[in-house]
Structures are given as C-alpha cells and as structure tokens.
Amino acid sequence: MARASISTVIERRVRSAARNRCGYCLSPQHLVMARLEIEHIIPLAKGGSNADANLWVACPIRNRYKSDKTTAVDPETGAVVPLFNRRTHRWSDHFRWSDDGLRIVGRTAIGRATIIALHLSDDPDVLEVRSHWVLAGWHPPEA
Ligand SMILES: [Zn+2]
Predict the structure, then answer these.
(1) Distance from residue 75's CA to the centre of ligand 1 (Å)
(2) Counting C-beta atoms within 10 Å of the first and last residue's C-beta, which end of the chain has fewer, N or C?
C-alpha cells in the first residue's frame, strides 16, 4: 500500500531500527525467503502516514493478515483492544515463546488479540519452518 512513496532513506532507517526482522513474529530477513515489508502501523486508509513513527517491518504473512486492522478482540475477555505496536510496545511485555519455541503465547490482552488476528501461532507452515529453526539452534530469538 503506497509503498513506492516511502523513500529509500526512510526504509533503510526503519529496517535498521527493526533489526531487519518482523515486529510480530521476530523472523529475521536472513531466514525468510520473501523480502520483509515496510508496514504502516496505522494504515494510510485510516489516516496513517509514511513517517518513521508509523512504519515498522513485517513479514509478508503477518502483513497480509494485518491488512488495515488496528484493533482485534482479546479471546479471553472479548474486549476490543489495539493491535501490538512495535513502536510503542515491547514484544516481551506482550508475548513469550512456548517452551518448545514453536508458538508465540500472549501475556496480555493486546498480545492475545494480536496472536489471533495475525495468526502468529496457528499457521502449520510457519510451525513447520520454525521447528527446523529450533533444531538448527536459530530459534527462538531474543525479544
Ligand atoms: Zn512475521
């Protein structure tokens, strides 16, 4: 979405700030076949901008699921809460890895809602790939 209007300079800065890994599933570019994307935290369609503060890095899978969402439902309480925002939230405050390192587990309403909305822990293809990363000693990453 309007990716072409994000300058190379801004994209480089955002990738650097994100350590070139997905803000949601923490998959690093060097382990993902597809190019990680620059995502709008607040979508342009909802008034978001192309400023650094509204941009982060997401893998194509997460970015497709996120689409123009900014909120989701916490499966425990039914409350509508904001999606996890890597610019204002700390990953480890809202998520943790399961003991086997395969699944992301929510610690908060925001974490739980984001896991459901972005399918962070139920995609069988992702779980398969992650299981190989675990065997190779590449995963889970530090938050
Ligand atoms: Zn991801």
Answers:
(1) 21
(2) C
Lowest mean pLDDT among 26-30, 65-69, 139-143: 139-143
Residue 109 token pair: 């309403």
Distance 5 CA to ligand 1 centre (A): 23
Q: What is the pLDDT of residues 41-94, one digit of tens each?
A: 999 999 999 999 999 999 999 999 999 999 999 999 999 999 999 999 999 999
Query: 23 with 86: CB under 8 angstroms?
Result: yes
Cα-to-centroid distance, 28 and ligand 1 (Å)? 8
Nearest CA to 107 out of 97, 93, 119 is that of 93
Distance (angstroms) between ligand 1 centre and the Cα of 16 equals 16
Helix (H) / strand (E) containing 96: strand 95-97
Query: Rounded to 10 degrees, what is the CA torsion of 64, 69, 73, 74?
Result: 70
* Model confidence, pTM: 0.93
| Residue 80 CA to ligand 1 centre (angstroms) | 22
